[in-house]
Specification:
The protein has about 375 residues and is of the alpha/beta class. It has a single domain (about 20-360), classed as TIM Barrel (Alpha-Beta Barrel). It has helices at about 35-45, 55-60, 70-75, 75-80, 85-105, 125-135, 160-165, 190-200, 215-225, 255-260, 270-275, 285-290, 310-320, 325-340, 345-360, and strands spanning about 20-30, 105-115, 145-150, 175-180, 205-210, 230-235, 240-245, 250, 265-270, 295-300. Mean pLDDT is about 95; it is low at about 1-15. Bound molecules: zinc ion. Zinc ion binds near residues 26 and 28.
Amino acid sequence: MADSPSPNARCRANLAAVTLPSVLLHDHLDGGLRPATILDIADTTGYRDLPADEPEALGAWFDQSESGSLERYLESFQHTIGVMQDAGSLERVAHEAAEDLAADGVVYAEIRFCPWLHTAEGLAPRTVVEAVASGLANSGTGLEWALIIDALRHEDHSMEMAEIAVASRHLGVVAFDLAGPEAGNPPRRHLAACRHIRESGLRLTIHAGEAAGDNGPAYIAEAMDVCGAERIGHGVELIRDCVVEEGEIVKVGPVAARIRDRQIALEMCPASNLATGAMQAHEHPIGALHRAGFNVTISTDNRLMSSTSMPDEFDFVTEHHGFGVDDLARVTRRSLAAAFCSHETKVRLWEERIAPAYREAGADVETSW
Ligand SMILES: [Zn+2]
């Protein structure tokens, strides 16, 4: 298992010589499986619905990097979820995710998933969380990690998922999130669950402004102001609340101003947005938001469906948005600052694993946290 590359590894033009360390805040467990593992588990468990029967063809089928629709993109999850219905499979998928992320230079990852999706064949939600935590804990990779429990915003289980999150702190659960089809499902629908999370002392991030269209800024405002989200998943539609001239933000509206004033971290996942939004690489707002002082962080979202990895995402912003090694260092420091781990962990990761590597790569970084 250890020598398999990340799903659909691409050529890494700009950073080929060095894999910079990264902090990954937004990665879905059911969006990062190895195609060979999907086939293997399907073979063992008798799952018969896969659209291809060898790894390369299956990987190509999963590559939704040009689908242009969030709904179509989400459809492809039926097969990854289909092979994640027993504890052994969940443990294996989590274990391999840790291996793949560590191989990509990720030193700390927050992995998210919705336990409810893995109960179709009778697993208890608690067993789902235990299996995932066990797979990550036993990976032997040195990757440090934490778990985020998702509720699906178009379902009615958010309070149940919030209660599972609160009861699973001892397994490494640090936060709660709303995921799934965004349009027509505003964050406010799940206010009770969000309140339960905050009152229990867990952290909160919400997918908002990913695919809500004209409602993007309003949903981002709801996530932050009504539900109390500390980070925003994606947030690309914040650009609709900005005036942009020649690729630069020259004026911000009220929602964008609050996000920037409070330095709310945006968990931006460019490859995923290109896949679901029919957007050209240079049109992605990540560069403009970064230059305008927003708290931009970089994540992968779904490594399998978006055919991406952290080095690929770093290559994307380097190639299409002019990021240099100092920008990547800044993004990595911001990501660590916004992470839901302890202060001690941040100090240790920065001073021992991240800052030395960026200095080595020529970045002008603070060596102390
Ligand atoms: Zn996501």
